[in-house]
């Protein structure tokens, strides 16, 4: 059972790496470095939403400090915030090693999985919410604007908007990353994303504008994404849930597999 859980955890991690890197690999303004130890994605923007480093070893040990320092220094020199993602128990030596190079723990989510064939998405939803795949550059920019609203009026919000504005033409009919929007009276109020990796479909970016929350839009988008995933693929579906949202996914049929801890360098840039 432990071996199977590790395999599933690696499946979730691999899907996330594809999400982080698939646009960067075909963009002149972004950069991806892949080694046996880590994957580093530089989005070309000062945004820790898109600047990611993913550790690939079973555990981050004190002997790995030099490699981690190299990655952190890379972003620090550019004055770019970044996030390092670890699929290890934050109580292990991973936590102490990452703290020793100056990174702070930002959040911990739960990696989850389900068999798409066993899921039964609820086709119902608020009648006022129109759900569809983003099919124009304008709709992709609206997707970015809805996501950016989660960050208020911060610099991060501006960078999230700019990221999707720059990537809009490449995201149209993309074979790996598909964006979905939920609209009320022509305003995009909810979002969701599917990542079609070779061995899984990942669900990301389920978000609702603050002023439209509490009306079932987020849940409706989630079930719409499940239906879209089942339409295109069989096999595993994966996601990363916040502690507040984990019960929604459990009720839909997802099971937890491991914790995912995110560390950041933003405080080092102040």
Automatic annotation (TrEMBL):
Residues 127-270 form the N-acetyltransferase domain. InterPro entries: Acyl_CoA_acyltransferase, GNAT_dom, Trichothecene_AcTrans. It comes from the Bacteria. This is GNAT family N-acetyltransferase.
